[in-house]
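User: We ran a pulldown and think these components assemble together. Before we commit to crystallization trials, I'd like a predicted model of the whole complex to look at. Sequences follow.
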Amino acid sequence: MIRFKFKTITLAVSLLLASFAPLFGAGSGGELLKVDWSFKGLTGKFDRASLQRGFQVYKEVCSSCHSMQYLSYRNLGESGGPEFSEEEVKAIAASIEIEDGPDSQGEMFLRAGRPADKFKSPYPNVNASISANGGAYPPDMSVLVKARPGGSNYIYSVLMGYEDPPAGMNLDDGVYYNKYMIGNKIKMSSPLSDDIVEYTDGTSATTEQMAKDVTTFLTWAAEPELEERHRTGVKVIIYLILLTTLVYLSMKRVWSRVDTEV
Amino acid sequence: MSDHEYTPKSKIGKWFNDRLPLLTLGSHLTDYPTPKNLNYWWTFGGILTFCLLTQIITGIVLAMHYVAHADLAFASVEHIMRDVNFGWLIRYIHSNGASMFFLAVYIHIFRSLFYGSYKSPREVIWIIGLLIYLLMMAAAFMGYVLPWGQMSFWGATVITNLFSAIPLIGESITTWLWGAYSVDNPTLNRFFSLHYLIPFLILGLVVLHIWALHVPGNNNPVGIDIKKPSKDTVPFHPYITIKDAFALLMFMIIFAGFVFFSPNVLGHSDNYIPANPLVTPAHIVPEWYLLPFYAILRSVPDKLGGVILMFGAIFILFILPWLDTSKVRSAVFRPIYRQFYWIFVIDVLMLGYMGAMPAEGIYLVLARVGTIYYFLHFIVVLPVVGLLEKTDPIPMSISEPVLTGSADPSLARKNNDKI
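Assistant: Here's a predicted model for the assembly, 681 residues in total across the polymer chains.
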């Protein structure tokens, strides 16, 4: 009896979920490339080395156009992220010149970056970034992975999706063909090519490797809480299952005084 | 309520209770005679109370960190997600909590539809419930605007523009709602204010909803009136409290699954793009729980007609107790209504699906068929089936179908299987 009821509840819930599933599939061009990311699944974690390499790709390639305004340099040293050491974080921040002020004379001044500073944006404002990039806004990358249907797979696919346009397709200057981009046209030229970055850990910098690393980094940037979330989630659900079992047994005990099943 | 005698044991208790009978109320709530045959569909009232309190508590904390300004709202949400201790957890509970709230309220409403809980003498409970549902939709819609992402902005634009369909004064009303000549900072400010207010209005209505429930008492799967208290009832505490607790915990496991393992699956990815009045998203879709009504809105070629039908789809529920002509409450004993009930469920799910799809081609056709059927169900099916249907024999008491020792064992067994 009780099992039957749960079946009905499960069925109802899954029907409901299925009824709004189409919301999340729609969007991009072709079928996305799928990567077996280490951060997927109930206990998924980021690959630390990949995050550090991904940061290097971001810093040396992406950051010349794309801002990441909601992150601070200190985040790079926090647990669950690339986990650079305190000295490394200080050094990364110090290598950036930040405008601060006004000082006591009312003047703005430049100083070395500190871990508490937000990531410095490549352009002073959105209009400047649009004007410098042929009329296309290079989106801020802080939550980019969450802002695209398909998430990490989409970002990876776009990075890997540059091809020659199919015959008969004419592209304007500064427009490129991308198999996975919505509408297949993109104003960013292929940002990655083999060995564009020289990895400090000796990993061979193939386009595929860099695309994977930078996507991992961007996923962390969008969801810095991911590891803690997964860890806490497993504990919470185990706790709830234990408590539910205890309450179920108590309920059976209490209701045994009545001639009705629960 | 009136037949409840209670005297506190302690002197202080008696002194206090004579001045403010809170202890009498507490005793009434714990002793409240409840039908013993309530199934798990009846546990959603408690679950909904939990949802409301969860939304209020997490919401109050979020409001401590959120900034209701068009230039700062998006950044303040990211501040909550990154810098506030457990901010990500509080926000994900709140945003997924809205979905869980609606999941529970839909189950609660469809339970009422199946077992005829809206019928005499429970019409007022039903109507208060619908008012709560309306306020929930308003609160959810305004809450979705607060992060000031693309879907926030464009959802707000689409919904507020509906009022411009009203002849003559429509445009003025829309401008008045916006506080500007488009959705802008004043709109965000008032939506935040109202989003904070509405949950407390809901809380007040919930008190009335429960008060109205405690006058006739619960309906039950058999749908018959029962003597209270009697061998057909159990005291609310501990029997119903522990059963509700068990069901709530099951519900919380699903809830936690969303919060910890796919916190954004019920949202739309466009809402992580900051609002931009110059770029319209390819498909503007509301949150899943509003999709059936969105499908009805779009299925009418005329804007005003669409708005009228959409609101009509909700307001027709208010007269449901008088549209359903059957004296028998529970669909368990209504073989014909039972089939139409499930067709109606499928119709609403289909409308939800069409609401998520672009309004063109086959989707539009099906949305129109679904819309017409939605209204036919209330205007034609319910009154006619109620009059013509030959209902199954109804047991005299709850104990009859439950106990095998009844006068007619075959009937007892049959009913037992059904419930």
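Chain B has three domains: 1-30, 32-284, 290-388. That may be worth checking against your pulldown data before setting up trials.

User: Thanks, that helps.
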